Amino acid sequence: MKIAFFDSGIGGLTVLHQAMKILPNEDYLFYADTAHVPYGEKPKEMVKKYVLEAADFLAAQDIKALVVACNTATSIAIEDLRKIYSFPILGIEPAVKPAIQQSEKKRKKVLVLATRLTLKEEKYHHLVECIDKYDIVDGLPLPGLVTLAEQYNFHEDQVVPYLKEQLMPFDLNQYGTVVLGCTHFPFFKDSVKKLFPDETDIIDGSIGTANNLKRILRERGQIGGGTGAITFYQSSVEVKDPETLGHYHEALDRLDALNK
């Protein structure tokens, strides 16, 4: 049985990459809903429809767990999915809690970079309201990073000017922690890091999600049995084209390089 990872595009590879490091003896299915990417700028009900359709397809693939490796999809549809399916369903959300803990120690603020839809959702606002006692969390939507990632465009000469323009209203010295609150954004961690002071932490939620996946599979006695193979799908169609497969593996190689 495989572990399925779902995202609107390639962003979910950042979560899959973490899972592969701690669960190497699994087989994986990665589903990118490229027919409908990006999610972050679309109406909520439309996104929920796409997520439910994708989950229905994945549920038929004999999977033992589903990781919704998309912050926007998690915020909109995770509770609905858990009511429908009996296998474990894990989501990902902006790592606001550890960010606040780290920044409070530094007496600094937190900046959450995410999609517009994630930052508007009640799930995100409830999360922040519960733990942001001193009103230190700011948010900034960066839809352009999703577009660049989907184009496999990680070139600093194009990424950094976009980031500088979007961050212009902010005093970057105020922030002790930056949260990469969209799974596409860790691809640009090096560019984000260059714009903030050296002591600013740049974090995301992928490690926590991967660790939670391992814990759940261990509790269910379902760890192992695979070889680390990955089957890729784009909106319910298996990817067999060598060029497209090459892009996915190049993206995973980039994550290897960024995490050394």
TrEMBL record:
Top-level taxon: Bacteria
Reactions this protein catalyses: L-glutamate = D-glutamate
GO terms for biological process, alphabetical: cell wall organization; peptidoglycan biosynthetic process; regulation of cell shape
Enzyme Commission number: 5.1.1.3
GO molecular function: glutamate racemase activity; identical protein binding
InterPro entries xref list: Asp/Glu/hydantoin_racemase (IPR015942), Asp/Glu_race (IPR001920), Asp/Glu_racemase_AS_1 (IPR018187), Glu_race (IPR004391)
Amino acids binding substrate: 7-8, 39-40, 71-72, 183-184
This protein's pathway: Cell wall biogenesis; peptidoglycan biosynthesis
Catalytic site positions: 70 (proton donor/acceptor), 182 (proton donor/acceptor)
Keyword terms, alphabetized: Cell shape, Cell wall biogenesis/degradation, Isomerase, Peptidoglycan synthesis
Main function: Provides the (R)-glutamate required for cell wall biosynthesis.
Family named by the database record: Belongs to the aspartate/glutamate racemases family.
Name of this protein: Glutamate racemase
UniProt source species: Sporolactobacillus laevolacticus DSM 442
